């Protein structure tokens, strides 16, 4: 259940990448190339101190490994063409010093085909003996993983929205979890039987299992992707749970009223702790936590 994808829009990725580059080179050593004035030059940022150029590119997710690699290779080819076309401007930006590295910055790099394409383009450009490129010029691809956890955590708060694409658990995954969690399932069935019956009861228990597993997977992803945000959310959820255990629900006397009240209260708490978390992820966390509370002790409903 650890597989997930961070959904980036191009603007957010460009902002996030700038923060990562500040961590790598220092804020005074990174320069932006605005693309709105007569088009871009095949680079978004550059560092004269290290003679390196960066181009940001976030593939529209979700896509498969091969499709992501194809899009990244196409982007590399296209923007290296711009780099050659605008060589005089590039040389001026780098103060006459030859460029040593051109790096595609992408959120995720997971195919060796892109490495091979970078090597191909490296040899191709070296073979042209271009005066504005260093004799050891190299084309590279870097993703966020190469910058380290500290840089990621420092810059994630700058995003306008954080959205992780968490796949729903498969049938075999749900079956494996259920086999070792019979007490939780029995508890859920007993409680949910107070608000529904028959086939709808089985469906409700299955939904609670799915919500619980997906919510847990999202928290695992946040722990890796945004540890500070994960801690804030954990605190908010734990606080609501303690209040529920101590004072009970304020949702009235009906199962539906109680359930809706706890969902609404927890959603408010999560939004307060993580205002830039996507609505979809907020819902996944809320339903996951409430399902866990039903499977355990904090949340129950009065008998019909």
Describe this structure in words.
By secondary structure, the chain is α/β, with parallel strands linked by helices. The strands form 2 sheets. The protein has a 5-stranded mixed β-sheet. It has 11 helices and 7 strands. The chain folds into 2 domains: 148 residues, Trna Endonuclease, Chain: A, domain 1; 129 residues, no CATH class. The two termini are 36 Å apart.
Secondary structure layout plus pairing:
Layout: E1 5-6, H1 10-25, E2 31-32, E3 45-47, E4 52-56, H2 65-85, H3 87-93, E5 99-105, H4 112-126, E6 133-142, H5 149-156, E7 164-165, H6 171-179, H7 182-192, H8 198-225, H9 227-247, H10 255-273, H11 279-295
Parallel strand pairs: 4-5, 5-6
Antiparallel strand pairs: 1-7, 2-3, 3-4
Task: Give the rounded overall mean pLDDT.
Answer: 91
Low-pLDDT stretches:
none
Please write the CATH class name of the largest domain: Alpha Beta
- Percent of residues in β-strands: 5-15%
Beta-strand segment tally: 7
Helix content: 55-70%
Kindly identify the CATH topology of the largest domain: Trna Endonuclease, Chain: A, domain 1
* Count of discrete domains: 2
- Strand order, main sheet: write it out: 2-3-4-5-6
User: Whole-Å distance between the termini?
Assistant: 36 Å
Evaluate the radius of gyration: 25 Å
Sum up the overall morphology in one term. elongated
Helix count equals 11
Structural class: alpha/beta
Q: How do the SSEs run, as a string of H and E?
A: EHEEEHHEHEHEHHHHHH
- CATH architecture assignment of the largest domain: 3-Layer(aba) Sandwich
Largest sheet, in brief, is: 5 strands, mixed
């Amino acid at each position: 259940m650890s597989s997930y994808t961070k959904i980036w829009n191009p603007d957010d990725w460009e902002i996030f990448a700038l923060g990562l580059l500040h961590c790598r080179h220092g804020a005074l050593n990174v320069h932006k190339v605005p693309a709105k004035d007569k088009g871009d030059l095949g680079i978004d940022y550059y560092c004269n101190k290290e003679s390196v150029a960066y181009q940001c590119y976030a593939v529209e997710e979700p896509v498969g490994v091969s499709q992501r690699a194809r899009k990244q290779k196409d982007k590399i080819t296209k923007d290296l063409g711009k780099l050659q076309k605008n060589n005089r401007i590039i040389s001026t930006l780098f103060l006459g010093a030859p460029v040593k590295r051109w790096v595609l910055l992408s959120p995720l790099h997971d195919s060796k085909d892109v490495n091979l394409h970078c090597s191909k383009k490296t040899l191709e450009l070296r073979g042209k003996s271009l005066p504005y490129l260093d004799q050891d010029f190299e084309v590279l691809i870097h993703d966020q993983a190469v910058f380290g956890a500290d840089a990621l955590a420092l810059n994630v708060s700058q995003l306008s929205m954080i959205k992780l694409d968490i796949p729903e658990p498969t049938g075999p995954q749900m079956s494996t979890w259920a086999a070792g969690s019979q007490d939780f399932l029995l508890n859920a069935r007993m409680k949910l039987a107070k608000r529904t019956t028959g086939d709808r009861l089985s469906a409700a228990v299955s939904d609670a299992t799915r919500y619980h597993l997906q919510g847990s997977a999202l928290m695992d992803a946040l722990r890796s992707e945004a540890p500070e945000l994960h801690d804030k959310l954990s605190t908010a959820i734990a606080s609501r749970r303690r209040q529920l255990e101590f004072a009970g629900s304020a949702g009235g006397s009906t199962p539906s009223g109680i359930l809706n009240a706890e969902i609404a209260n927890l959603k408010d708490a999560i939004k307060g702790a993580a205002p830039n978390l996507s609505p979809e992820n907020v819902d996944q966390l809320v339903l996951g936590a409430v399902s866990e509370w039903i499977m355990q002790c904090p949340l129950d409903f009065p008998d019909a």
